[in-house]
């Protein structure tokens, strides 16, 4: 354990009565409420001098991770995207061997045309 400092345990060094005001912790703020699809409210604070255009319309809700908007009656909907695809989902997306061969041949033909080469047979 280090010793030798004269600070009282638990106090912050340099935090006098005017310190927080000088750092802007008591600046004028505006509270903006955001609601997610589950009805959770999140309040964010912005500087009062900030124009309305710079305050974001949507944020990610910290409690659920869902998008949250400023309109309480019409919050953003939950995204329908699948966050994680299973192996079976990838297998279902695979093309047949004939389609894959045709796509490969088309890509090779375009590449050779750009390079000015003719296909070797």
UniProtKB/TrEMBL annotation:
Gene3D superfamilies: RNA polymerase-binding protein A (2.20.28.270). The keyword Hydrolase does not apply. The keyword Transcription regulation applies. Residues 1-21, 54-82 are annotated as: Disordered. Keywords: Transcription, Transcription regulation. InterPro entries: RbpA_sf, RNApol-bd_RbpA. Belongs to the RNA polymerase-binding protein RbpA family. Binds to RNA polymerase (RNAP), stimulating transcription from principal, but not alternative sigma factor promoters. Forms a complex with the RNAP catalytic core and with free principal sigma factors. This is RNA polymerase-binding protein RbpA. It comes from Agromyces allii.
